[in-house]
Amino acid sequence: MKKTFLLSVVLALFAFSVNAQKGEPIDAHATKETKALYENLGKLSKKHTLFGHQHATEYGHGWYGEADRSDVKSVTGSHPAVIGVDFSGFSGRSPEAIAKAKEALRQNVIDTYNRGGVTTAAWHFSNPVSRGGFYWVDTLSLPAVKYIIPGGEAHEQYKVILNEIGDWAHSLKGADGNLAPVIFRPFHEFDGGWFWWGKPHASREEFISLWRFTVSYLRDSLNVHNFIYAFSPDNRFSTEEEFLERYPGDEWVDMVGMDNYGDFGRDRYAVDTAAMKLKIVSDYARKAGKLAAFTETGLESIPDTTWWTNTLLQAMKKEDVDLAYVLVWRNDTRSPTHYYAPFPGQVSVPNFMKFYRDPYTLFEKDLKKIYKKKKFLGIF
Predict the structure, then answer these.
(1) Residues near 7 by Cβ (< 8 Å), separated by ≥ 6?
(2) Who's near 233: CB < 8 A, 6+ residues apart?
(3) 168-204: per-residue pLDDT in tens?
(4) Would you identify the CATH topology of the domain 32-366?
(5) Would you report the helix, strand and coil content of the chain in percent, each value rounded to 5?
(6) Do 258 and 294 meet the contact criterion of CB atoms below 8 Å apart?
(7) DSSP state, 179?
(8) Alpha carbons 145 and 162: distance in angstroms, whole number
(9) If we measure between CA atoms, which residue out of 374, 380, 379 comes closest to residue 39?
(10) How far apart are CA 295 and CA 289, in angstroms?
(11) Residues placed in the known binding site for substrate
(12) CA-CA distance, 369 to 373, in Å (whole number)?
């Protein structure tokens, strides 16, 4: 097992050195659609940022499972350019429940691809070796990272879970017969302690081992070639060195990002601080030949009627940054307060329409053939 993993590392380093010169994904065998998406996101981010919303087309404020619906579309006439989904249903359930979750998500990703939109997948991964779910619970949780990395007692169990993801990735055939690309963002917000893969529950070396094995196994063993791999801590950094403290290496990452709710009204309004952190992310992406993104943010219930332009847009425009997308969190179907994008009648709708009409932001209707390589990328 160790020899095989070392060989994978050597091959990955070689492939990365070749691809880095071309400005392509870390996967030398990435599908042409995945390579085109990577390239086009990089081009678009020079002047624009795609707007994304988690679970946008699965459910929204007061509704669930309606075809071609999203709260953002109900407000603007267009779906978000980026649709966030989650692999949370791919493990920790009965085989029947896993199969149902995989099929529902497969159809969601294919529908987005067929419309010309982009999918990003987070992973609220239920603890594979103890109770407690994906959150860390002091009385229940075990530090699973050390158990599931190579050499750990639950490593083979982790491979079975990755097999489910691999099988699913191979099933994402769109109407054109090609596999839909997915921006895969595992183990997010790892610098905090609220998830079992967080900093207090795994050493730096253990986390990096987990990341590298996950990428290598999916890409090199399971032949998943339609993933773009995104690295996204929370906002607990103020220097590049702190941002990269658990970075697995350029040969293992396609996109660097940041999750930040705290500076956007949840804990404080700190536009200058937020902009500085986005610049750290963007500057590293430019230096390393990566994509950058604002991978999660939002203000629950959006009570601030000018939040979209005076806080979010201001933070993204304040510094010279290239951001492929910005994604706000989900709109719960039952909760009267847990939502992060407006719906018809919500108090921030007028300001959101200003955000929507700003040339800097792109929605699904603005995207033109993002899965095709071209010399000039038209968007309107």
Answers:
(1) none
(2) 188, 189, 190, 191, 243, 246, 258, 259
(3) 999 999 999 999 999 999 999 999 999 999 999 999 9
(4) TIM Barrel (3.20.20)
(5) 40, 15, 45
(6) yes
(7) B
(8) 14
(9) 374
(10) 18
(11) 124, 194, 261
(12) 8
- pLDDT average, residue stretch 100-111: 98
**For residues 344 and 356, is the Cβ–Cβ distance under 8 A?**
no
d(CA 190, CA 230): 13
Q: Are 211 and 245 in contact (CB under 8 A)?
A: no
**Using alpha carbons only, what angle is made at residue 177 by residues 174 and 183, rounded to the nearest 5 degrees?**
45
Q: Which two tokens stand for residue 316?
A: 């993204």
- Kindly report the pTM of this predicted structure: 0.93
Q: Would you list the domain boundaries of the chain?
A: 32-366
**Per-residue pLDDT tens for 221-267?**
999 999 999 999 999 999 999 999 999 999 999 999 999 999 999 99
Count of residues for the chain?
380
Q: Cα–Cα distances in Å, from 60 out to 165, 283, 344? A: 25, 35, 11
Binding-site members are 124, 194, 261
Residue with tokens 């950058």: 292
241 in active site: no
Report which DSSP code applies to 191: T
189 in catalytic set: yes
**Mind giving me the DSSP string for 211-272?**
HHHHHHIIIIIS---SEEEEE---S--SSHHHHTTT---GGG-SEEEEE-STTBTTS-B-HH
d(CA 180, CA 225): 10
Choosing from 296, 300, 319, 364, the catalytic residue is: 296
Take residue 32 and report the two structure tokens written for it. Answer: 């042409």
Select which of 39, 189, 206, 364 is catalytic. 189
| Non-local CB neighbours of 9 within 8 Å, separated by 6+ positions | 212, 216
- Cβ atoms of 296 and 329 within 8 Å: the answer is yes
Helices of type H across the chain: 2-22, 32-44, 71-76, 95-115, 145-148, 155-169, 204-216, 240-243, 271-288, 307, 314-318, 349-357
Report helix, strand or coil for 324: coil
